[in-house]
Every structure is written in structure tokens, then in C-alpha cells.
Amino acid sequence: MQTVSKEYHRLSQILPAIKGLGIFMVLIYHLWGYSKGFFSFPEIIKQTNASSLGSIVNSILYFFCLLGQQGVHLFIIASGFGLTASWWRKYGAEAQQDREFSSGNFWKHRLARIFPLYWLAHALALLLLWIQPKWVPFGTGNLSNWGAIKVGVALIASLTTLRNFLFEYYYFLNGAWWYIGLAVQLYLVFPVLIWVGKRWGWSILLTGTLLVTLVYRATIVALPLDEMATDVLIRGAIFVPRVFEFAFGMILAIALLEPRISTVESCLNWSKNLLLSSRWIWLTGLIWLIGVALYWTSAEGWMVLRIPSDQLIGVGEFCFIFQILSFFPLKKWLNIVGNYSYGIYLTHSNTYIAFWILLAKVPSYWLRFCLVSALSCLFGGLFELGCNWLLKHKIKT
Fold it and tell me: How far apart are CA 20 and CA 340, in angstroms?
């Protein structure tokens, strides 16, 4: 019988809360952007009235909403950790090394988990579009002029996640669905990353993916592309600029599940200590802060600073938040949100618009904001729960 370390159990138990916080960050960022506009950090500072307590509080809340943009990093690293931990339990442990890892079975299992809900989310978005077009503003502004063929192409591109490579359809129906395409690509390269780690060493995997990521991001910044193309290609339309964060999650899993390897490979030991040791919480917070500062500064025209920003944000944010949540007393509520984070992610960019419009008579902006956020989480959770029940029932019958 396989035994796993206490450190692995510690991260596994907190992981749902990390995902719950991640989806909440993404949701409030998108809702804030829709209802107020995506202010940059300098714009928030500029409109703050230092002599007004209300203005200061409002700016602080704006700051936290802006910070929500970084929630997706948590999902990328958590995905790398979860997939690698699952692989290790089946194939990587010493007792299981005689079993052959089947890439085909892995892809079939993972894609079967991600696509059904994704396709049902399309049905929901189309239903909302039919009920009220204002509820689905993403990529549908000129939909009435597209014609049946173009709409069909856009729908196929979205259903297959090829939308990530076709910028005209990148925001079709739901502007947040680019991440699903990224997740599919990371699933496809996962067996290759496992092979590299086993053959050449996990430290080589981590440093190699970092190098590839930085070279790719520098190339995109250097090319004469328009602002949208540069942002999309660096954000993660293609997996390459985010593969280091995914590999970092993989490294954490190996480091926690194979202490013997951690003592040999320095990168694993370093990653493990950075995550688990509370004495390094200041360093992880600093890494996160530097990454965010580079990211926000890049938005002011210094695009070269975008090259290392996401890698710093991912590592610093994940480790820092892990330490904070280790002592957070209300993790069970974040656990619930995290357990249904996929359904919330798939639906929130459509449902919060409907809820925001329906709750227009709520007098306070922040009360309305909180109500819409809560309703969007509730709806997304029920959507995932209902769809999973429906699919399970259909399989049985």
C-alpha cells in the first residue's frame, strides 16, 4: 500500500480552498470590469481623494478587484499538481513502475471530464443570448451581420477550443473560455512533460520550461503585433507562455510525493521549502508583489516587463496563498466554492451580467456587487452539480 507524506496531505486538503479563492478572484475582476471598467493601478491612485475616507476605501476595494486578474495562476499550478499526483499514484510510485502510462487513456479520460460541461455551457450561453442579447455581450456585437456560415464556424471553433487560435472568435459567447483551450493544450503536452521529467530529471523539466517560456514571451513582445494579438499570445491562447507555471505544479507534486528525489534534485527541494516553510512567506509575498508590479507596469507601455511577470506571480502567489490559507479559519466555505469552480468559471461571465441587470434597483453598488457575486457562484455550482447528475444518469441508462 502506498504511503504519502503529511506535506502532500496538507496541500491536498487546502487545494480546494485555493481553487475557491482563485475562481472568486476571477469572478470579482470580471464583474468589476463589466460594472465599472478595467481601471489600471495608476488610474485607481489618480482618482483617489486622500481627504475622503470613502474614496480611500473605494480605491482599496478597486485594488483588490484588480488583483483578481491573477486568480488564473492558481488554477494552472493546481492543475499541474493534481494531474501529476494522480499519475504518480497510478504509475510513478516504485510499486507501480511496471505499469505503462497510456497517453491515449489519459487524454480520453481528461477530455471526457472537461468537454461535456463546456459544451453544455455553450447551450446555456446560447439560451441566454436568445432570451436577452444584452446578457451575452462577448463576441456577439456583430452576430446579426455574420450570417449562418460564419456563426457556425465560430460555434465549431469554440466547441473544439480552436477559438484560441482564431482571434476573430476568441471572445465568442464568453470571454473567459480561452482558459479551457489552454487547459486542453496542457493536458495534451502533459505526457511529454512527464517523459522529460523521468528521463532527464525534474530540475531539467522546471528550468527547461522556464527557459522556453521566457524565450517565447520575449519573441512575442519583439514581434510587430497589435496590442490584442500580443496580449492574447502572452496570456495563454497557446500553452507555451504558461507551461512553466504548470510544470511548477508538477514539481510540487513530485517533491511532496517523492522525498527521496527531493534530496537529490535541488529544484525540488527549493520548491518544497518555498511552499511549506512559513519562514519564507515574506519571500513568496515579495515575489508575487514584484510580478504584479511588472505586470501592471507593462500595461503602461513597458511590454518587456510582461516577459517574466506571470512566472513570478504564479510561484509567489500560489506559495503565499497556501501559507495564508493554512491558518485561515473559514476554509470550508472556500472548499465548497473550489469544488464547483469549473462550473462557476464556465458560467460566470454570462450569468453575472444577467444578475447585474436584474438587480439594477439595489441602491448600493457594493451590496449589488456582493449579491451578484454570490448568485453567480451559486448558479455555477448548481450548473455543475446538475450537469454532472444528468451526464451520470444518462450513462447509466
Answer: 8
Contact, 362 vs 37, CB < 8 A? no
Q: Cα–chain-centroid distance for residue 345?
A: 9
CA dist 25 and 20 (Å) reads: 9
**Nearest to 220, CA basis, from 237, 240, 234, 238:** 234
151 half-sphere exposure, CB direction, 13 A CA radius: 11
Tell me how far CA of residue 297 lies from CA of 183, 219, 266, 304, in angstroms. 27, 19, 32, 10
- Closest by Cα among 68, 60, 25, 27 to 44: 60
The pTM of the full predicted model, rounded to 2 decimals, is 0.93
Say how far apart CA 47 and CA 32 lie, in whole Å: 16
pLDDT at 397 over 80: no
Residue carrying the nine cell digits 473560455: 177
What span, in angstroms and rounded, lies between the C-alpha atoms of 18 and 162?
29
pLDDT at res. 327: 85
Class of residue 5 by CB neighbours under 10 A (exposed 0-12, middle 13-18, buried 19+):
middle
Cβ-contact 104, 11 below 8 angstroms: no
Helices (H), 201-258: 202-222, 227-235, 243-257
Instruction: Report the amino acid identity of residue 27.
Output: L
E runs forming strands in the chain? none
Closest by CA to 128, choosing from 352, 302, 338, 396, is: 352
What type of residue sits at position 216?
Y
**pLDDT over 80 (residue 98):** no
